[in-house]
Write a structure and sequence with these properties.
The complex is a heterodimer of chains A (about 450) and B (about 280).
Chain A: H1 2-28, H2 32-102, E1 104-117, H3 120-125, E2 136-152, E3 155-162, E4 169-178, E5 187-194, H4 215-220, E6 225-233, E7 239-246, E8 266-274, E9 278-289, E10 300-316, E11 319-332, E12 335-348, E13 352-362, E14 381-394, E15 399-413, E16 417-419, E17 429-437
Antiparallel strand pairs in A: 1-2, 1-17, 2-3, 3-4, 4-5, 5-6, 6-7, 7-8, 8-9, 9-10, 10-11, 11-12, 12-13, 13-14, 14-15, 15-16, 15-17
Chain B: H1 3-24, E1 29-33, H2 38-51, E2 57-62, H3 64-73, E3 78-81, H4 87-97, E4 102-110, E5 112-115, E6 123-125, H5 126-134, E7 151-155, H6 160-168, E8 180-182, H7 185-194, E9 198-202, E10 211-212, E11 214-217, E12 220-222, H8 226-231, E13 237-244, H9 250-260, H10 262-271
Parallel strand pairs in B: 1-2, 1-3, 6-11, 7-8, 7-9
Antiparallel strand pairs in B: 3-13, 4-13, 5-9, 5-10, 11-12
Helix pairs in contact in B: 2-10, 3-4
The chains are: A alpha+beta (about 450), B alpha/beta (about 280).
Chain lengths: ~450, ~280
């Protein structure tokens, strides 16, 4: 065993010595052929590496050449996409803004007038000189802008100022709630608004064919508007019902401008059926009023009943024909009152229209109109009947020109007597009006 | 100054103004309103002007609501509308012109639901359509399609098609707030043609490059064709109208008569709608 160990150890020593010797010998004396070969190999390797580098450079160049148009297009597309996204965002913002603006409807109209009033009969027949000097004048009758905002299908708001004459006044301000559950379309409106009575009161002067409302409407519903609450609904198709509770004095009342001295409120109701070419309506009004600001003064009953007819048809090839008629009877200031008007309208073509109206109002139908110069009646005047003739011409879609003549056919004045053409500020008036409506 | 003198001069002034205005007034017949009818109106105008060299017809869109408003205020002679006039609009006509205007059906249409041509869905019920447009259904998978969000395209609220679709297909429910409102049927068709998951609606004549969806009813599944639209089997069938103030007269009457003649109705078919008779 020891012999084997010695033998192996010796062999290992010999092999190590041989290896060490061989290495020393190769380093010390290199073979020339091998060196040459190695140099050639190194040169070839260098050349291969150089070619590889050139090849890679060529490949890069080629890749660059191939990729440049694609990348450029991609970059352009990306830039365009970003721009488009930006524009889309701006458009959505603008759409949202416009959507909000669409909920607000702004409308209005301006009426400018020249009026000429004939005083001749006052001076001669009444035996005194009229103190007024403004027998003809220019003025701005209406300058109105109406803002109606409808944020949802269940509510609506309105504010309606008037900038005419010499001051700014509030004509309307109301809020309407609409129920979405039934087919009767109940609308509840509260604020300052038109009385829902008859036809003429709610018919704006921007569409009226003659310059002023009838004497009846001006006397019984002065200002046409009041503060209160109104319920409107459609029980069956084409039938509308309005029921309202109001202060009762109207917005133009000089004695009770903002207050209602009577505790009971006034009630208004109207039923209207619209057949299309014909519409019929019946109205009712009932309430109480004071004549003075004295808080102990008595309340007095007032009431009106009215009926109205509207008829529209194109009889003549030249244009449509309209007929509006309304009558009101009731009690006001402890007197029985009655008034009516009948108006016929004929269009000639689409721009020209003629209107003729006869209207009458008697503030005391029970009095004897032949008993003049009496103090029995506290009213200054009695029955008045007027005739109005108007020509309307639509200059364009927005502008209308009006030329009208108002004549008093019959008038009685308790203090001055009767004359078929007598003293009234509405006597023989010529109106020239320009109106723009938007 | 005497009353008679004032009246004389005022009347004279009005007559002079009227005469000047009459001289300045244009002689062209104007058609305005529905975008659905725009293409058809233009085609009618081209052919009519070729046949009647002295007549000038101007056609513009904007939507039925815009056209009706223009008819009321007098800025167009003829309103093209893809829906009936509302009561409130008739009252405005009546208030100004003392008649209810004339409603003339000039063509028939089937309001069509457009899908992208790659969309695998080919028929839907009215309830499904309503759910899509009210926002109740928001994913194509709910209708048997892929798991992808439905992109809803529609029209602006001045459009007659908007109003008709809301009434006939959606039973007057409100459109989903996510609907993208586009100006004109062409814009809707273009959007759906490019959007794999888009859906839109509009006149049958515009359905080019998109898929028409058949509407499934108890009686079968119907696409808008001459037969299904005229028989009323297609549930979204409707008339397309011309409205004029009063009774048509003069050049307008001649144009209306021609549009309703076999020659005028042939144009209806060429454009892609359906004749009234």
């Amino acid at each position: 065993m020891n012999k084997v160990k010695v033998l192996v150890t010796s062999l290992a020593i010999v092999m190590i010595c041989q290896t060490a010797f061989a290495q020393r010998s190769r380093t010390a004396k290199p073979d020339t052929a091998v060196v040459n070969l190695q140099q050639k190999m190194e040169a070839l390797t260098f050349q291969v590496n150089s070619l590889g580098q050139e090849l890679n450079a060529a490949k890069d160049q080629l890749n660059k050449q191939e990729q440049t148009p694609v990348q450029a297009v991609e970059e352009k597309v990306s830039a365009a996409h970003d721009k488009l996204a930006g524009m889309e965002e701006r458009m959505l913002t603008a759409e949202s803004d416009i959507g909000g603006m669409k909920k607000l409807k702004v409308s209005g109209y301006i009426q400018t007038r020249f009026e000429y009033i004939n005083h001749d009969r006052i001076d001669s027949a009444a035996g005194f000189t009229d103190s007024r000097t403004d027998s003809s004048w220019f003025y701005v009758r209406r300058g109105r802008i109406k803002f109606v905002y409808t944020p949802t299908s269940t509510s609506q708001y309105c504010i309606y100022p008037d900038f005419s004459k010499d001051k700014v006044t509030l004509k309307e301000a109301w809020i309407t709630l609409t129920e979405p559950w039934t087919k009767m379309k109940f609308n509840l409106t509260m604020g300052q608004m038109n009385w829902p009575f008859g036809v003429e009161i709610e018919r704006s002067s921007s569409v009226r064919e003659v310059p002023e409302r009838s004497i009846m409407s001006n006397a019984l519903f002065k200002g046409e508007r009041d503060r209160g609450v109104k319920l409107n609904f459609t029980p069956v198709q084409n039938l509308t019902v309005d029921l309202g509770v109001y202060n009762g004095y109207g917005v133009d009342n000089s004695t009770f401008t903002l207050t209602d001295p009577t505790k009971p409120k006034d009630f208004v109701g109207r039923v209207r059926y619209d057949f299309g070419l014909v519409a019929l309506s019946g109205s009712w009004y009932e309430g109480r009023e004071k004549f003075s600001t004295n808080k102990d003064s008595a309340d007095h009953y007032k009431g009106r009943m009215g009926g109205a007819l509207e008829f529209y048809h194109q009889f003549l090839p030249v244009g449509g024909t309209g007929l509006l008629a309304e009558v009101v009877k009731g009690e006001s200031r402890e007197k029985e009152v009655m008034g009516y008007y009948v108006m016929g309208i004929q269009n000639v073509g689409e721009r020209l229209g003629f209107a003729l109206r006869v209207d009458s109002y008697d503030p005391n139908i029970s009095s004897d109109t032949t008993a003049f110069n009496t103090t029995a009646n506290s009213l200054k005047y009695d029955q008045t009947t007027n005739i109005s003739l108007a020509v309307n011409y639509w200059w364009d879609a927005a502008v209308r020109l009006t030329l009208a003549l108002d004549r008093t056919l019959y008038h009685t004045d308790m203090t001055m007597g009767q004359d078929s053409k007598y003293a009234s500020y509405q006597d023989d008036k010529i109106t020239m009006q320009m109106q723009i409506k938007f | 100054m005497k009353l008679k003198t004032i009246m004389f001069w005022a009347s004279l002034a009005l007559v002079v103004i009227m005469a000047c205005n009459f001289v300045m007034a244009g002689k062209a017949i104007t058609l305005k309103g529905s975008d659905t009818l725009l293409m058809l109106g233009q085609r009618w105008a081209e052919l009519y002007m070729q046949k009647n060299p002295g007549v000038v017809i101007q056609v513009t869109g904007g939507g039925s609501g815009v056209g009706i408003a223009a008819l009321i205020n007098g800025s167009t002679d003829i309103c093209q509308a893809s829906r009936s006039m509302k009561d409130s609009e008739r009252k405005k006509i009546r208030e100004r012109y003392f008649n209810l205007g004339s409603e003339i059906p000039v063509a028939k249409d089937g309001v069509t639901l457009y899908l992208n041509e790659k969309n695998q869905i080919s028929e839907l019920t009215l309830d499904q359509i309503k759910d899509v447009y009210t926002g109740k259904t928001t994913n194509w998978s709910q209708l048997g399609g892929p798991d992808a969000k439905i992109i809803v395209y529609g029209r602006e609220n001045s459009s007659g098609t908007y109003a008709f679709f809301r009434e006939a297909a959606m039973k007057n429910a409100d459109y989903t707030s996510s609907m993208q409102s586009l100006p004109g049927t062409s814009a809707v068709v273009n959007a759906v043609a490019k959007d794999k998951y888009g859906v839109g609606f509009g006149g049958a004549a515009y359905a080019k490059g998109v898929k028409e969806v058949a509407i499934k009813t108890a009686k079968g599944s119907f696409k808008p064709t001459a037969e299904t639209v005229k028989s009323g089997q297609y549930p979204l069938s409707r008339n397309l109208y011309w409205y004029v103030r009063g009774k048509p007269s003069g050049e307008i009457k001649k144009l209306v008569d021609w549009v309703l003649s076999p020659e005028g109705q042939e144009v209806v078919k060429t454009v892609g709608y359906f004749t009234v008779k």
